[in-house]
Amino acid sequence: MGHFNIAIDGPAGAGKSTIAKLAASKLGFVYIDTGAMYRAMALHFLRLGIKAEDERAVAEACRDVDITIRYEDGAQQVILNGENVSGLIRTEAVGNMASASSGYISVREKLVKLQKQLAKRENVVMDGRDIGTCVLPDAPVKIYLTASVKVRAMRRYKELQEKGKASSLNVIEQDIEDRDYRDMHREHSPLKQAEDAILVDSSQMTVDEVANAIINLARERGLGD
């Protein structure tokens, strides 16, 4: 039997990574945070002084880059060209660069290749924007996880407040709407629900409820048989 892969897609702020992490830990699977891989790539571009609109420079910078994910003491570490960059990729600048550059075919092809390699080696839970449609089209379990813009904005707002960062709920809502639009209308691998994915709206659900629903689905689809 090959490895069992679970694909979770959905818009920014739907709670994909929190839920994917929890489901993976309950199942003893490896959690692959593809967003972190795009952020590592974005950090690579920023360090090279590349502007998001310079597609040729972006494509060239993709050639000689290696990004992988490994676990140390149960914590995910993101490795960019041999350097652990986990603590450097959560800034707003990196997030914006990741969103702007992730639409380029050169970036996607490189990262999809790296992600497919990871999924061949392990039982994985992978989350992102195009996992079920593009990276793991044969995954036995595909989830499209969403939540209303208001709920997603409020979660982000609370997150920033806890970190002591001032923010405006209206600005966050607008940012989320803009990012949704960009993700859904980009030319390559736009965000969309795979035909065989199950839609889960987490607006009124706890993280545990969503993770358990995914695990039950995995069991129905033959996990552990």
UniProtKB/TrEMBL annotation:
InterPro entries: Cytidylate_kin (IPR003136), Cytidylate_kinase_dom (IPR011994), P-loop_NTPase (IPR027417). Its EC number is 2.7.4.25. ATP binds at G10, P11, A12, G13, A14, G15, K16, S17, T18. It is found in: Cytoplasm. SUPFAM superfamilies: P-loop containing nucleoside triphosphate hydrolases. GO terms for cellular component: cytosol. One of its GO terms (molecular function) is dCMP kinase activity. Keywords: ATP-binding, Cytoplasm, Kinase, Nucleotide-binding, Transferase. Its main location: cytoplasm. Belongs to the cytidylate kinase family. Type 1 subfamily. This is Cytidylate kinase. It comes from Clostridium porci. The gene is cmk.
